[in-house]
Amino acid sequence: MVLLLSRGSARKRAYFERLLESEGPDPLLDAPELLERLLAVRAMLVPSPPLFFYVLVRHSLRQSGLDDRDLADYLAALLLDFGQGERAWRVDWNDDQRHRYLVEILADLDATTGERRFRVMVHLGNYALWLAGLFPDYIAARHLRKGGPDVSYYDALGRRGFGMASDHALASHYGLDALLRTASERFPAVRGALNGLSDRVLFPTAATPDRALRDLGIH
Fold first, then answer.
1. Domain positions in the chain
2. Which residues are within 8 A (CB) of 85 and not within 5 positions of it... i.e. 6 or more apart?
3. Residues 202, 158: contact at Cβ < 8 Å?
4. Contact between 191 and 135 (Cβ < 8 Å)
5. Which of 17, 130, 137, 151 is such that its CA lies 20 to 30 A from the CA of 185?
6. Are 136 and 198 in contact (CB under 8 A)?
């Protein structure tokens, strides 16, 4: 971060190093120019995946009016985790069941108890956010061509999953109750922030009617 922000200036580098020592990494992580410089890196100096995803999510959330570092940290970890193999389809890495559709997670929720029930609640929120946040054009295309649910369905079930999880005793035990409650209450805004992230970084050349509506702020 110091090298990217200072851009070869010894004076700026000394300033950012003093800032890092006195205030920790947050002022550097929130620097408006950091994201652009991370996206432009084309050299051996590359950010770690956790750093890159945190900055990407943090800046996307702030642009949507969500100034919550814990939420940014949670979502960055979620994107890193769900991007590996079939992890997005499982309640956790060691779970034997795979869920491709939200209705399958709902059925699992009705059939399970104990700590796993809490994990299924969280997974309902996570998976709804993963799909609607990163793949909104896929959802829109299925809705148009095959009569699948639109994004409001994912918003509703995502809010439900996080909301139920936030009220569970284990949420307080793990220190996640406030974070999960925020994710539930602000789900459409969080999903919208991830839509912007997806449009800009994952599918920068895509041109779809649904993306045009997002660019206009219609949904």
1. 70-215
2. none
3. no
4. no
5. 137
6. yes
Q: Give CA 112 to chain center in angstroms.
A: 26
- Could you identify the residue written with the tokens 């059925």? 107
- What is the Cα–Cα distance from 217 to 29, expressed in whole angstroms? 27
CA–CA distance, 180 with 193 (Å, rounded to integer)? 17
Give, rounded to a whole angstrom, the gap between the first and last alpha carbons of the chain.
34
Phi, psi of 153 (to 5 degrees): -65, -45
Integer CA distances (angstroms), 181 to 22, 73, 168, in order: 32, 15, 11
With a cut of 80, say whether residue 43 has pLDDT above it. Answer: no
- Extract the tokens encoding 42: 């084309």
The total number of residues written for the chain in this structure: 219
The radius of gyration of the chain's CA atoms, rounded to the nearest angstrom, is: 19
**How far, in Å, are 42, 103, 149, 193 from residue 132 at the CA level?**
30, 15, 11, 11
135-161 tens-digit pLDDT: 999 999 888 888 889 999 999 999 999
Q: What's the one-letter identity of residue 74? A: Y
| 178-189 pLDDT tens trace | 999 999 999 999
Question: From CA 133, how far away is CA 137, in angstroms rounded?
Answer: 10
* Separation of alpha carbons 171 and 119, rounded Å: 10
